[in-house]
Specification:
Chain lengths: ~100, ~170
């Protein structure tokens, strides 16, 4: 689990600054590989971030999001030790998830 | 608790009922140990792509993308802040931050007018999330970016022109 995703949550006053970096090719379907074959569309469609078990972000992405997508959000009312999770799913059913703890 | 006998060698061959019952009980225990439960995903169903806004993301023209967001009547707003460089060196990886100061912001969508598919992403906020997002986009060529905010069912929009040195969608 979490092989693809780096998740961190840093507290600034009472707001958790949550940052996620997901390793994923986010292929547009327009790129050609070394053999000049088109590389098929392959991108993350949904990302969901929770804080203490409640969904704080529901993101719908497309192939227009950069390769190795980065997503940053901010959640108010956070405290050190709060649990943050992230899950993603792509257009081929690929998925992964990660967890982090809010740190001061 | 390991079964005393490996499951595949369990045969209720013993004539006596006691032995048969003991075998059956051990078999049941072994079955419980060996049955493959699908790994539980915390307590929530696995994230599904079923809710993905296919019509919106597959719209090829700007008017179609805006229509799919219901944003044809979006009011122009100065309270949506788009932080992005005026000149983007690498269109394949353009850093953008969006902050909405519109009260009751529930979601925001980012559109790149000149991309092959204009709608780039939609972010829905809840449970204390600020109406803010930071991400990296592919921008095909110089042109207009727009952000559409949904606040309590009302739609607002702001635009920003950017120049792209090396296009990012290829």
């Amino acid at each position: 689990m979490a092989d693809t995703t780096r998740l961190s949550a840093r507290l600034r006053q009472d707001t958790a600054d949550i940052r996620a970096l997901i390793m994923h090719p986010m292929e547009t379907g327009n790129r050609r590989d070394a053999k000049n074959q088109l590389v098929a569309l392959h991108f993350i469609q949904r990302v969901q971030i929770t804080h203490n078990g409640r969904v704080v972000l529901d993101a719908q992405l497309s192939q227009a999001v950069a390769r190795d997508p980065f997503v940053g959000v901010r959640v108010r009312g956070a405290k050190p030790g709060d649990k943050v999770t992230l899950a993603w799913v792509d257009n081929r059913g690929g998925r992964d998830s990660a967890e982090a703890v809010v740190t001061a | 608790m390991k079964p005393r006998v490996p499951f595949d060698t369990l045969h209720p061959v013993d004539a006596s009922r006691r032995a048969a019952v003991r075998h059956a009980a051990t078999a049941a225990a072994a079955l419980g140990m060996m049955s493959w439960l699908p790994p539980l995903q915390a307590q929530a169903p696995a994230l599904s792509a079923a809710d993905w806004n296919k019509a919106g993301f597959e719209a090829k023209t700007l008017p179609d993308a805006i229509r799919q967001l219901g944003a044809g009547q979006a009011a122009s707003s100065k309270d949506i802040q788009i932080d992005i460089q005026d000149v983007i060196e690498n269109g394949a990886r353009a850093r953008i931050e969006v902050t909405s100061r519109i009260p009751g912001t529930q979601s925001l969508s980012i559109i790149t007018d000149n991309n092959p598919y204009p709608l780039a992403a939609t972010f829905i906020f809840a449970n204390g999330a600020e109406p803010y997002v930071s991400t990296l986009l592919k921008i095909a060529e110089s042109g207009t970016l727009r952000v559409i905010v949904n606040a309590g069912g009302k739609l607002f929009m702001t635009t920003r022109d950017v120049r792209v040195t090396i296009g990012g969608c290829g």
